[in-house]
Amino acid sequence: MSNRHLSRSISMQSLYEWDFQISMLGSGEKTKNKEKLDMIVKNNIKEYGVSTEKDDFVSDVISGVFDNLKKIDSIIKRLAPEWPIEQVTIIDRNILRIGIYELAFSKRTDVPPRVAINEAIELAKSFGGNSSGKFVNGVLGSLYKEIEEKREKKDSKPKKDRIKN
Questions:
Q1: What is the C-alpha separation between 76 and 94, in angstroms, rounded?
Q2: How many Å apart are CA 17 and CA 82, to the nearest integer?
């Protein structure tokens, strides 16, 4: 298992544990529990014996998901309207959060889009249900398509001619 794949697994498991605990408190408590999430991550990193490099990647993913949680969840709601976010399994929801963070909020040079999607699908196949891989692929594929369409529109806009003095 590659370092980053293991790091994503630890990130997903940490987010799962945090999300499960928070769901018992109510959705309004999520933003108040960064300390709880950090503690869960620290314990999971210690349990899996992760090196410093992996530790940094896990921390980056966890912080990125946490800092963008409302935006990420709104993307899930928009791209999977038939599934209210509370009804998406905790595993699938947190795999999507990681995938969406990597696709839409992290630097493209850090993780190529196809790698982010593929890694999320692999996590879904390993940890989710029978249809998790297809569900994750559908949501992240739709997001990727949107991102690419926006990029193409941006690239095809004619540049204004510069007026030389």
A1: 11
A2: 25
* Phi then psi dihedrals of residue 86, to 5 deg: -70, -20
CA within 13 Å, CB half, 4? 13
- Return the CA Rg of the chain: 17
Check: CB of residue 99 under 8 Å from CB of residue 130. no
Cα four-point dihedral sign 117, 121, 126, 127: positive
The pTM of this model reads 0.86
Residue with tokens 């249809």: 131
- 165 band by pLDDT with thresholds 50, 70 and 90: very low
* Average pLDDT score over residue span 9-25: 90
Task: Determine the pLDDT at residue 56.
Answer: 85
Cα 107 to Cα 57, 101, 114: the distances in Å are: 13, 10, 13
Q: What are all long-range contacts of 114-121, with beta carbons under 8 Å and residues at least 24 apart?
A: 116/140, 117/141, 117/144, 119/4, 119/5, 119/8, 120/95, 120/96
> What is the rounded distance in angstroms from the CA atom of residue 102 to the CA atom of residue 140?
10
What is the C-alpha separation between 26 and 86, in angstroms, rounded?
11
Secondary structure element (H or E) that encloses residue 55, with its range? helix 52-67
